[in-house]
Specification:
0% strand; elongated; 167 residues; 8 helices; mainly alpha
């Protein structure tokens, strides 16, 4: 199989095709075959670009982006849904039969998990934020203690302990 052409070669061939040059002259100037020039001409006619679109991998998704948007909005209101309940939601609103695993894969594509859904829903709940502010309003700023947990790692040791030489 011949190596792929560089972007600069594609640009050169495209400009020469638009300039109505013969294929043999284009192939000599761009150091490619005349078959390559004909292929690029065909791609320009069909797709409007010098490269053909890539082939899709795998089968098409059963959950569209509109379905996933609606499901994500619904999960913000009800974060404790099971996957089969999410399947029922999609069926009730879109009349599309999907599987629980396709729901999980679609949520994974957005970076959502069951654990993250609960955290996001709690963070967006105004009542919980107000309750937290109310519960912590009596604490003064000088009373807070912040702990840096990086110093708690026992695998990290200072040199000189346990017979390690000082350098």
């Amino acid at each position: 199989m011949a190596p792929s052409l560089a972007e600069s070669q594609h640009a050169q061939i495209h400009a020469m095709i638009l300039g109505k040059r013969p294929p043999a002259e284009i192939a000599d100037a761009a150091t490619c075959s005349t078959r390559g020039v004909y292929r690029i001409k065909r791609n320009l006619r069909r797709f409007g670009t010098t490269k053909a679109p890539s082939n899709g991998v795998g089968r098409p998704r059963s959950i569209t982006s509109e379905m996933l948007d609606a499901l994500c909005k619904h999960l913000l209101d009800e974060p404790d849904l099971y996957h089969h309940e999410m399947v029922d939601f999609v069926w009730n609103h879109f009349r599309v039969q999907v599987t629980a695993s396709s729901i999980r894969r679609a949520l994974d594509s957005r970076g959502w998990s069951k654990k993250k859904i609960g955290c996001v829903a709690k963070a967006r709940n105004a009542d919980l934020r107000d309750l937290y502010s109310h519960n912590t309003s009596h604490i003064r700023s000088w009373q807070y203690v912040f702990v840096d947990e990086s110093g708690c790692d026992k695998r990290i040791r200072q040199r000189g302990q346990d017979g390690l030489p000082l350098v």
